Amino acid sequence: MKLTTHVLDTAHGHPASGMALTLTRLSDGAVLKRAVTNADGRVDHPLLEGEMFQFGTYELVFAVGDYFRKLGIALPDPAFLDEVPIRFGISENRHYHVPLLVSPFSFSTYRGS
């Protein structure tokens, strides 16, 4: 089983390339992975797999403010969205996909396949 993500920049209609993210296990606060999205808005390797894939509650934090600033988007100070945290639970032995659709002023997520 594995955990993956995909980030889409809905303001510009394309994958969010170069967005930093951090995965933390909430039970002990352990940072499990820091990564940056590739040209397709995905991380090159699963965020969790093998024995690292365990039931529990996790948090993915996406650095959306930094991403939009790098694109030259003028954001207010402070930005409406700077870091977007998504807390989710893993309770089954199956593939979990946590996509993020984001603009400077909105975001949504869902459990993908």
Number of helices: 1
The biggest sheet, with number of strands, parallel, antiparallel or mixed sense and barrel status, is: 5 strands, mixed
Distance between the termini: 12 Å
What is the helix content?
under 10%
CATH architecture group name: Sandwich
CATH superfamily: Transthyretin/hydroxyisourate hydrolase domain
- In total, the number of strands is 9
* Structural classification: mainly beta
The ordered H/E elements are EEEEEEHEEE
CATH topology (level 3) name = Immunoglobulin-like
- Tell me, rounded to a whole number, the average pLDDT: 97
Number of domains: 1
Unreliable runs, pLDDT <50, ≥5 residues?
none
CATH class identity: Mainly Beta
Rg from Cα: 14 Å
Account of the 3D structure:
The chain has one helix at 64-70; strands at 2-9, 14-15, 20-25, 30-36, 48-49, 56-62, 84-90, 96-103, 106-109. By secondary structure, it is mainly beta. Strands 1, 2, 5, 8 and 9 form a 5-stranded mixed beta sheet that branches. The protein is globular and about 40 Å long. The model has no long low-confidence stretch (mean pLDDT 97).
Task: Provide the fold topology.
Layout lengths: L1 E8 L4 E2 L4 E6 L4 E7 L11 E2 L6 E7 L1 H7 L13 E7 L5 E8 L2 E4 L4
Salient structural properties:
single chain, 113 residues, Immunoglobulin-like, four-stranded antiparallel β-sheet, 9 strands, 45% strand
Précis, in short:
The chain has one helix at residues 64-70; strands spanning 2-9, 14-15, 20-25, 30-36, 48-49, 56-62, 84-90, 96-103, 106-109. The protein has 113 residues and is mainly β.
